[in-house]
Amino acid sequence: MEEFILSNKERMSIFKLLCENKNLNFNSIVKSTGIRSNKLSYQLNLMKEKGFLRSDDTGYSLTIESQRLIPYFSQIFKKEVGVLPVILGIVRRGDKLLLIQRRKMPYKGYWGFLGGKQISGETIPETIKREVFEEARVKAKFIGYNGVVYERLREDSRFKHSFLFIITSLEAESFDIESREEGKVCWFNYKDVVDNKIPMVIPSDIKLLKDYSDKSIDVEHFILEETDGVLTMK
């Protein structure tokens, strides 16, 4: 059985090939990857069982679930680290502002806005409301979009993180909150945060409060439908 097990490099070569070609027959995959046919056949069947591939009389192609991973694998193929989109929420109730003290890097130990990464298929309001509930166990009403900011974190003159922040505003339904594994959550006086009276608040978050709290922008959500390789707007 060990003779049929592919190396990570060989597995990646199959995935990369199918990322670049919508459909390929078995012989084309053998020719392009150089993997022995019986070994390749075993791996392709395993990838089908795991839901990565589908096949028909014309050949093999990636499933929709696998296609969702293409943007992330593209970064691996090119050895690039991409900018990370993050949805941030200015969560208020009255004159209070909800912040989280981060338990993980980057910005570990600092207080900042709640938020996180968007799950594929979610709208931006769905993402930030989910993140606020997951991090603080409080439901919040989505108010609107405040702005988009590109932020980079540098250490020893070298950039190590790049974020594209989408700033949003929300109104919490209550003051009842619960800290979770992401970090400690707490209500602060909004003016105290803006006036930099709270220790260990992420500096850029203070600036965002000053510059973006009262701003409003439009963000459109598009849906495209792909049918047999043809794209249409929905």
How would you describe what is shown here?
There is one protein chain. The chain starts with 7 loop residues before the first helix and ends with a strand. The model has no long low-confidence stretch (mean pLDDT 89). It contains eight helices and eleven strands. The protein has two domains: 76 residues, Winged helix-like DNA-binding domain superfamily/Winged helix DNA-binding domain (Arc Repressor Mutant, subunit A, Orthogonal Bundle); 129 residues, Alpha-Beta Complex (Nucleoside Triphosphate Pyrophosphohydrolase), CATH 3.90.79.10. The strands form three sheets. Strands 3, 4, 5, 6, 7, 8 and 9 form a seven-stranded mixed beta sheet that branches. Strands 1-2 form a two-stranded antiparallel sheet. Strands 10-11 form a two-stranded antiparallel sheet. It is α+β, with helices and mostly antiparallel strands.
Write the layout of secondary structure elements.
Blueprint: H1 8-20, H2 26-33, H3 37-49, E1 53-56, E2 59-62, H4 64-67, H5 70-78, E3 84-93, E4 96-102, E5 111-112, E6 114-116, H6 124-136, E7 140-155, E8 158-172, E9 183-189, H7 190-194, H8 203-212, E10 224-227, E11 230-233
Parallel strand pairs: 3-8
Antiparallel strand pairs: 1-2, 3-4, 3-6, 4-5, 4-9, 7-8, 10-11
Quick take:
This protein is of the alpha+beta class and 234 residues long. It has helices at residues 8-20, 26-33, 37-49, 64-67, 70-78, 124-136, 190-194, 203-212, and strands spanning 53-56, 59-62, 84-93, 96-102, 111-112, 114-116, 140-155, 158-172, 183-189, 224-227, 230-233.
